[in-house]
Structures are given as C-alpha cells and as structure tokens.
Amino acid sequence: MVSLERMSRIIDILSKRKIIATAQLEELLYCSTSTLRRDLIELEKEGKIIRSHGEVMLITANNVEYVYSARAREEEKSKQQIAEIASTFITHNQSIFIDSSTTAAMLIPHLAPFQNLRVITNGIEAARQLNNFENVTLFLSGGHIGCGTNSALGDFAANFINNFHADLLFFSCRGLDRYAAYEANHNQAHIKREMIANSDKAILLADHSKFNTSHYFKLSNYSSLDCIITDQAPVESFQNAVGSQCEILW
Hints:
By secondary structure, this protein is of the alpha/beta class. It has helices at 3-17, 22-29, 33-45, 68-73, 76-86, 102-105, 124-130, 155-161, 186-197, 236-242, and strands at 19-21, 49-52, 55-58, 95-98, 117-121, 136-140, 144-146, 151-153, 166-171, 175-176, 181-183, 199-205, 217-220, 227-229, 247-249. Helix 8 packs parallel to helix 9.
C-alpha cells in the first residue's frame, strides 16, 4: 500500500472511530511503526489529525481550539454579563485561579476595587492585563504555549498550578450538557482539572451558546464544581439534572 493510499485509509478509519491507538492502526494497515509514524506526521502537518500519547484523533469542529482573538469576539456582551455576576464572589485578600479563557478574562477589570489579591493564571493575555494592577500579586505559569491560544499548557504548567491553593477558581469550557462540562482537547482540560483540585470554590463561566453541546474530552462532572454562571436561564431539563449538584446563576 503506497503512502497516499495508506493516509486515505487512516482518515477513513478515523472518520468512523474518531480516536484510535497507533498500535491498533499498525495492525489494521499492516505497516511498520516507522512507516505509520511518517504518515501520521504528514497528516498532522496538513491539519487533519492530532497525535497524543500513543493515540490518533481526527480533527473536527468539536475538537479544534480556535485562536484567542476569534474566541474573544464571540458573545462579548454575554461574557460581560457573566463577569459582573462572577465579581460578586470576590473579596479582599483572596487567592484566585483564572484560566486562559476569554470569558474569565472579562472578569479582570472587576478586580480593581479589591485589595491584596493573589492571582494565578496560565493565560498570557490575562497576565498582560493583570500586570497593570497594583493590588494584585501575579503568578504566571510556564509551559508549552499553544499557538494562537494565549495558553501555557502541558505538565510543566500543571506542576506549577499544583504549587498553589486558591480560594476561588474562575474558568470556562468548550461546551456542556446535562452530564458534564467538556473541553476541546486534553491539554486545556488537564490544566483546568488541576485548578479545580486546588481551589476551595470552582466557578464555571459559560454563555448560553455553550449549553447542550458535548465535545470529545470531558473536563469535569458537576459534582466537582460549586457554581455555574451563565447569561440566561438554561433549559429546565438542564436545571433539573444539574441544579442539585451545583448552584446555577444567571
């Protein structure tokens, strides 16, 4: 089987399975590890697949993380409304995790009235804004910088987060349904899970467009969260399923 034919077969397999182990692909294609690696590298360069920890995933609309500038323009008024509600949780002398999302970044101007805040973030744009706040002691994680995402990611960033404990966490997600909150990829989910584990109160910020949309990587069950803040009332079925596990505000 020639390379182009083999790569076409890989895409065909992934279109049916979404995600598959590389070892299983070798068996299905009857090819060597080195041959498969070359094909996967080429497909990744073409933006058709994602390779991660011995697995291969087809890129779809549900697992692409859009660049920060594009996300910042989406539902801007809704995000501002969410930030106003979220700011009511903030008091003086708190330690706060803020993730790299554009929704959480809307909260930053609301920090100005409070004294002696400590903010820990993996967001480059969040850190840029917070650098001008004299009332904030800022901690920015290192790590791999996802192209266009304004996010520090990977094990280095996760280990950095584990050095801190926060009173509050403000974070967003790619989508949520009545079962769980989801992220576009495991890298973002990994950092946010560490923040959830190391905070007293985890507050999810999600505008109405993110509801009733599930994505390939589960970020968190609602029992691990304390509050969801959105800009309009979720459908009754969502409120009934989730309201007993965490508070929902709009």
